[in-house]
Amino acid sequence: MLDRGALREGASGPDVERLGPEPEPESESGVARACDAAAEGFRHSQLQAARNIHTASHARAHRAGTTCGDCGESFGSEGAHSDRCQGAASAEFTGYTGRRHQHCIRGSKTLTVFRHGAMPGEIREIRAIDLFAGVGGSSAGASAAGVKVVAAVDSWSLARDTYTANFPEVTFLQRRCENVSIRELKKRIGSIDLLLASPECTSHTCAKGSAPRSEASRRTAFQVIRFARAFKPRWIVVENVVHMRSWKRYQRWLGALKALGYNVREQVINAADHGVPQARRRLFVMCDRDDIPSEVTPRSGRRKTAGAILNRNGKYKFSPLRSEKRAMATLERADRALTALGHSKPFLLVYYGSDAAGGWQRVSAPLRTLTTLDRFAYVKPGADGHFMRMLQVPEIKAAMGFPSTYLLDHGTRREKIKLLGNAVCPPVLTAVLRRLTGVGSI
Ligand SMILES: C[S@@+](CC[C@H](N)C(=O)[O-])C[C@H]1O[C@@H](n2cnc3c(N)ncnc32)[C@H](O)[C@@H]1O
Q: Three-state SS for 202?
């Protein structure tokens, strides 16, 4: 049996962090020893009645890529294990992964991860806070991964209205992160395992052009350090524009995370690599206090294209492309597209905002990065010339990777576009969390 005596000082509640010292193997053979030890902890006879239990034999089969003598499950590779677990029909499924040394139980809807040595009675969810929560893209991605978001902070009332419509069970604080009393928040929500944050990016982003940039805005990133120091979550994920790395205080900020004991991985991730029909590159800073964060690898398969988000059933009205009110720059962009594509194909036009890539794109490629502006128009050939309309909110929502059921009932069209253009693409965060925490990954 595992030694469960040594609980960490000051911890409360049935927290994985309260578990006694556990093996943290560095080598493959170390992994094997640790896995055996943990698997022994699952007393097969005692728990069999309640659950589909994995035993030491199961663990060995997983490592060796063979078949478990107890339950008959075969392991060709970690991927095969993954597919099998995701599709497990049993109401609860006890799984196993050597890489992260975790076990999980998959209920009919939720997936819970816990670390080696935890017994099923002590299983708990990964609990998260979402700072700078905006429209809730990070929370949507985390929830899809099986994480329980318990609190969210954003100073914008429209973010609050939209967020709480989608996550009514989450404690939402509508205030600046700087003004949140961590002592009070801790009293209200207890401990957390994961901190999610998308600090202000408008003063890092190149979309801001030559407008003056606010150091006060950039420094909101230091709120991550304040919350991390106080809550000591095992994991942190910070999302921002790639240009955040050029900030003069970026290395100091990163150093502060490391000084708190985090192993840190910075990775620029393209949403198009994770099933989102948008080529949106964002910086993700992934932190783990106990392990070295692994690289998030692209999903296999074809990328989704802009064509996939377009509503072509005539719901939205078009107007002639060539009209007196059209700006010369718009028509020049359209002409470039027509020269490249001919006159029979639809395309997307950069209508507002700057563009360094010709000002148009094919519908057969992922959409270029959406911003907080109403940026793209859809142009299609008609009986007498070309017609255009702006992309609509449901199309932009789909291009960000939000499910169609996500509620966006508050604000004007412009405000909704701003909320969406600021968001984290939920599928990207789901992929990041699966890789970082192991949640939902077996
Ligand atoms: C990049 S967006 C958030 C993206 C969010 N993760 C999502 O997926 O929707 C940044 C948000 O931070 C909020 N914000 C900016 N400064 C803030 C501050 N000091 N405290 C709290 N919220 C702030 C803005 O209102 C905005 O909604």
A: coil
Atom of ligand 1 nearest to the CA of 135: 9
Question: What distance in Å separates the CA atoms of residue 295 and residue 435, rounded to the nearest whole number?
Answer: 8
Distance 162 CA to ligand 1 centre (A): 13
- Give nearest CA residue, ligand 1 atom 20: 176
Q: Which two tokens stand for residue 209?
A: 């052009």
User: Poorest-confidence range of 52-56, 225-229, 316-320?
Assistant: 52-56
127-302+423-437 CATH pick, 1.20.210.10, 3.10.620.30, 3.40.50.150, 3.30.70.260: 3.40.50.150
Q: Where are the domains of the chain?
A: 16-122, 127-302+423-437, 312-391
- Mutate which of 130, 149, 155 for ligand 1 pocket (most atoms within 8 A of beta carbon): 155
- What is the token pair recorded at 72? 């008959």
Which residue's alpha carbon is nearest to atom 15 within ligand 1?
A: 200
Report the C-alpha gap between 77 and 56 in whole angstroms: 18
For the entire predicted model, the pTM comes to 0.74
Closest ligand 1 atom to 197 CA: 6
What is the 173 CA–ligand 1 centroid distance (Å)?
12
pLDDT tens digits, 359-396: 999 999 999 999 999 889 999 999 999 999 999 999 99
The answer to whether the beta carbons of residues 325 and 331 sit under 8 Å apart is no
Calculate ∠ Cα 282-275-399, nearest 5°: 70
280 lines ligand 1 (CB under 6 A): no
Q: What is the DSSP letter of 245?
A: G
In degrees rounded to 5, what are phi and psi of residue 142? -65, -45
